[in-house]
Design a protein that fits this description.
The chain has 614 residues and is an alpha+beta fold. Helices cover 36% and strands 21% of the residues. It contains 20 helices and 22 strands. The strands form five sheets. The protein has an eight-stranded mixed beta sheet with strand order 5-4-3-6-2-1-7-8. It has a five-stranded mixed beta sheet with strand order 9-10-13-11-12, with helices on both faces. The longest helix is centred in the middle third of the chain and has 25 residues, at 311-335. It is elongated, with a radius of gyration of 31 Å. The termini are far apart. It binds adenosine-5'-diphosphate and magnesium ion. Adenosine-5'-diphosphate binds next to α2 and α4. Magnesium ion (MG) is lined by residues 31, 34-35, 95, 100.
Length: 614
């Protein structure tokens, strides 16, 4: 048999290897930023278009490359950072494998411009799918610019598997944060589609954290500091009262590298025992300095896991150190009269039971009056405020699908099974009872129906919001005192993706930029006290799972709003309110289930009841 083994052509080998280093636009961002840091840049500009799918460009003012190096840097295993295997144990640079540029150039169209300080003229190189297309002398400032265009242009399958723009951009922001948070002595700028999202001046660590996360971050931070033989610990932990449901602001850095480590995370969380509510998470920005010889650095460059030699000792030291800082802070807080009162109020608000929305009822309104209130249908495209849906369907027999449905049911049943006759059922004003301020018990001919009042109202509001959110603006209540929730840059960014829908729902913003939002109007049934927490909640969900489509974004928002606004268990409802709920519920497309698929009502037939008495 003939020989069948052959060497892969270079460009194929490069593409395969590239898959390891460059998984998505954010991986290229990470590598380019790290190269700029390794080149000792003091200013770095990151320019991104279409979440990195069209362009990723990093411009630095670092040491630059000679003409020969500029060409050589795209070769696999070309690195200036280590010469011998021993160097691995003295590593002080981010890169060392010499693979990043080779990999990126294998799967994108790359333009490199670079110049060293001592030279008059620099070099420009175009390389595409590992092939150098052009190299020329160029007038360019000191430092290096690498522009990566159309990532995966030559691997359609890879390009196709990229996530939505918002997901990919989120990954880019994460990488940007990680680098920016480890290098406060370097100035960073980030542009996305020509908007400047971050402009981080040279600063100290605390200021850097604040300029990355914005808002009132500064007030949340408690400094951390501990030096032992094994490890130096610095950075900040969040005050317990700022703990949140999201994990977004939790960072470990080891020797200036971002890492993830569930074990050390546990050490930090356990230091908060008894200080934070269950299910909430503190923020932390912890910087560990460890002898490189005692950690396993032979890890994959794109992975963030790391192995420590003395993990248990590290756990104990870290936990004690966090506890110590938190203890010092709370002792100091008692003496600190200058604390910002507004912050305390906000936390108090979060703890208080949300107040129940008021349902206004027109006392003169007679639901059994057949004069024909020409109320619009619940799904009509009119822009009525959400609360009106409670009243929809009232007053006209034919608009009441519940009774209609039951009448049909009845026709196929034996009449002897019924207690009320049809006339009684229509006119009996006590045909609805509220039970335990939780259910509405509704007598009908064929038996009875037990409706969960909160779930029913959620379904009603949800279907109503679904329509309104994709439409023009609906009514909103103007606030006497604007609300300014404490959101970070990233959180505002997430929220901005839903801005239009939020406005359709009735939110009015007087300010909406990277420094925060100011709310001057909210949906009619929402209360100001609940506004911040519902938006916070929405953001946390967006952090977990960014909606991929227009519809899922609307759906998420409709679910959140309806859940928060719907009348709660424990609220007593008068007869009319009960009937309004029943009528609107059975005008819904899917009355049986809540938006998250929970049972809204159960039906108990007289025949079933009678069987039980046998
Ligand atoms: P590594 O960073 O692992 O060495 P890379 O492929 O990222 O591998 O880069 C290859 C080499 O190119 C680096 O070792 C460095 O000498 C040079 N280089 C890359 N980016 C820059 C930059 N922004 N400024 C100066 N030199 C750079
Ligand atoms: Mg590198």
């Amino acid at each position: 048999m003939a020989d069948i083994i052959q060497l892969l052509p270079d460009h194929v080998a490069n593409q395969i290897a590239a898959g390891e280093v460059v998984q998505r636009p954010a991986s290229a961002v990470k590598e380019l930023l790290e190269n700029a840091m390794d080149a000792q840049a003091s200013r770095i500009k990151l320019i991104v278009k279409d979440s990195g799918k069209t362009l990723i460009q990093v411009i630095d003012d670092g040491m630059g490359m000679s003409t020969t190096d500029a060409r050589f840097c795209f070769e696999r295993h070309a690195t200036s950072k280590i010469k011998t295997a021993d160097d691995l144990f003295r590593l002080h640079t981010k890169g060392f494998r010499g693979e990043a540029l080779a990999s990126i150039a294998a799967v994108a169209q790359v333009e490199l411009a670079t110049k060293q300080a001592e030279n008059e003229i620099g070099t420009k190189i175009h390389i595409e799918g590992s092939k150098i297309l052009r190299q020329e002398p160029a007038v360019t400032p000191k430092g290096t610019s690498v522009a990566v265009r159309r990532l995966f242009f030559n691997i359609p399958a890879r390009r196709q598997f990229l996530k939505s723009d918002s997901v990919e951009f989120r990954h880019i922001i994460d990488e940007f944060h990680r680098i920016a948070l480890t290098h406060p002595n370097t100035a960073f700028q980030l542009f996305h589609n020509d908007n400047e999202l971050f402009n981080l001046p040279v600063s100290n660590l605390r200021q850097r954290i604040v300029s990355v996360f914005g808002g009132r971050t500064n007030e949340k931070l408690v400094p951390l500091s501990e030096v032992t033989d094994l490890v130096g610990i610095g950075g900040f932990v969040g005050k317990p009262e700022f703990a949140r449901r999201s994990k977004a602001e939790q960072f470990f850095f080891v020797n200036q590298r971002y890492i993830r480590n569930p074990y050390l995370h546990h050490a930090v969380i356990s230091a908060y025992d008894g200080l934070i509510k269950d299910g909430t998470q503190p923020s932390y920005f912890i910087y560990l300095d460890i002898n490189p010889a005692s950690i396993d650095i032979n890890i994959h460059p794109t992975k963030t896991e790391i192995k420590f030699e003395n993990e248990q000792a590290l756990y104990a030291i870290l936990r004690a150190s966090v506890k110590h800082s938190l203890g010092q802070f709370s002792a100091a807080a008692v003496l600190d009269f200058d604390q910002d009162q507004t912050l305390e109020v906000q936390y108090e608000q979060l703890k208080t039971m949300p107040s129940l929305p008021k349902i206004e009822v027109d006392a003169d309104f007679n639901p059994f009056d057949d004069k024909g209130y020409d109320k619009p249908h619940v799904f009509s495209k009119t822009s009525q405020p959400a609360w009106e849906s409670l009243y929809i369907g009232l007053g006209s027999k034919s608009n009441n699908p519940l009774t209609e449905e039951l009448e049909i049911d009845l026709e196929s049943e034996e009449v002897t099974g019924s207690i009320f006759n049809q006339q009684e059922e229509k006119s009996n004003p006590t045909e609805y009872f509220q039970v335990h301020e939780k259910y509405i018990l509704c007598m009908v001919k064929s038996g009875m129906i037990l409706i969960d009042q909160h779930r029913a109202h959620r379904r009603i509001l949800y279907e109503d919001f679904l329509v309104k959110l994709s439409e023009e603006k609906t009514a909103s209540q103007q606030l006497l005192f604007p609300i300014t929730p404490d959101f970070s840059h990233g959180e505002v960014g997430l929220l901005s993706e839903l801005r239009e829908h939020l406005e359709h729902a009735g939110f009015c913003f007087s300010k909406f930029d990277q420094n925060g939002v100011e709310i001057i109007g909210i949906p009619v049934l929402l209360t100001p006290e609940k506004t911040t927490s519902i938006l916070q909640n929405l953001i946390e969900d967006l952090e977990q799972e960014i909606p991929d489509s227009y519809f899922s974004a609307i759906d998420l928002l409709a679910k959140k709003l309806s859940k928060s606004i719907a009348i709660k268990h424990g609220q007593s409802l008068n007869q009319k309110e009960q009937q309004q709920i029943i009528d609107s519920l059975f005008a819904c497309k899917e009355p049986k289930l809540t938006p998250d698929n929970k049972t809204v009502f159960v039906r108990l037939g007289w025949d079933e009841i009678e069987k039980k008495f046998n």
